[in-house]
Amino acid sequence: MSAVLSLRGVTKRFGGLVAVNAMDFDVAEHEVLGLIGPNGSGKSTTLNLISGALPVTSGAIALRGSPITQLPAQDIARRGIARTFQLVRLLPSMSVLENVMAGAVFGHRRRWGYEAEAVAQTMLEQVGLAGRGHMAVGQLTYIDTKRVELARVLAGEPRVVLLDEWLAGLNPTELEEGVALIRALRDEGRTIILVEHVMDAIRSLCDRCVVMASGTKIAEGTPAEVLADPEVIRAYLGDDDA
Ligand SMILES: Nc1ncnc2c1ncn2[C@@H]1O[C@H](COP(=O)(O)OP(=O)(O)OP(=O)(O)O)[C@@H](O)[C@H]1O
Fold first, then answer.
1. To test ligand 1's pocket by mutation, which of 10, 21, 36, 44 has the most ligand atoms within 8 angstroms of CB?
2. Ligand 1 atom with minimal separation from the 165 CA
3. What is the pLDDT of residues 143-164, one digit of tens each?
4. Centroid of chain to Cα 71
5. Which of 58, 65, 75, 104 has the CB geometry, 3.0–4.6 Å to 111, for a possible disulfide?
6. Which residue numbers delimit the ABC transporter domain (predicted)?
7. Sign of the C-alpha dihedral, residues 47, 50, 55, 57?
8. Are strands 160-164 and 208-213 parallel, antiparallel or unpaired?
9. What pLDDT, in 10s, does the model give residues 85-105?
10. Measuring CA to CA, how many Å separate 149 from each of 45, 47, 114, 201, 228?
11. 239: confidence class by pLDDT, cuts 50, 70, 90
12. ipTM greater than 0.90
């Protein structure tokens, strides 16, 4: 497997708490990797370490073999790792189109002006928001703000997409639309790390899963393999002492 992204011994401490403990995993080109685990197991922190939102305490992260550990977040974005956030982050004073153009301007490919606008329009179409670029982000429904955030990420033409609970908070109809959207990205051959609690989505979207509990990797394999693993089941049931 030629790794696009690799983590080796990646550890994050918050004071006395080891939130991420010696994580090792690789993500291959065109792979959808699910990073799963119970609440508080260190998934978002791991994404924050990969995207440079938080500094790593120890260990190494590489993008196509080049170290990115300790680089500032904007440099990591420039190199091609883009992410969504658990709480959608858009610029409220800017239109839908301008928010997506910001992704093109500050992303991996750095497009400007007309080119940035053209990429942004294409991505708005891809996420199902064609013709809504002029709207204020405050006018959008919740799922549409999520679509805008996804379009912004894609507009940067990233090599790796990090989705932090992108499906959280959607109603059942929206969830179907959201899963279809991520499946379309998967079918395009994008490389994705998906932090997610929705098990049906994990089963249908992920090639492989890494399971975390209390900051540590406890299992790795196909969704079917890891979800049948007794240690994973124990971790989800909160029965760590069993
Ligand atoms: N900035 C921070 N300062 C101190 N502790 C933190 C910080 N961020 C996260 N933690 C702690 O690190 C641990 C891992 O949290 P994290 O948010 O990464 O888990 P998670 O698996 O993403 O959880 P969830 O599924 O609930 O989002 C938790 O104990 C959390 O309280």
1. 44
2. 27
3. 999 999 999 999 988 999 999 9
4. 18
5. 104
6. 5-239
7. positive
8. unpaired
9. 776 777 777 888 889 988 887
10. 20, 16, 20, 19, 33
11. low
12. yes
Give residues with Cβ within 8 angstroms of 161, minimum separation 6: 82, 83, 153, 154, 185, 190, 191, 192, 193
Contact 143, 192 (CB under 8 A): no
Question: Is the CB of residue 21 less than 8 Å from the CB of residue 30?
Answer: no
The finding on whether 156 has its CB within 6 A of some atom of ligand 1 is no
Strand ranges inside 103-215, DSSP E? 160-164, 192-195, 208-213
Tokens of 167: 């499906």
Closest C-alpha to ligand 1, atom 29 = 40
User: Which amino acid is located at 178 in the chain?
Assistant: G
Question: How many whole angstroms from 95 Cα to the centroid of ligand 1?
Answer: 32
Query: In sequence order, which residues have a C-beta less than 8 Å from that of residue 179 and are 6 or more positions away?
Result: 167, 200, 201, 204, 205
Helix (H, G, I), strand (E, B) or coil at 149: helix
Cα 40 to ligand 1 centre (Å): 5
Mean of all residue pLDDT scores within the chain = 91
Q: How far is the CA of 35 from the centre of ligand 1 (A)?
A: 14
Q: How do residues 12-50 score in pLDDT, each as one tens digit?
A: 999 999 999 999 999 999 999 999 999 999 999 999 999
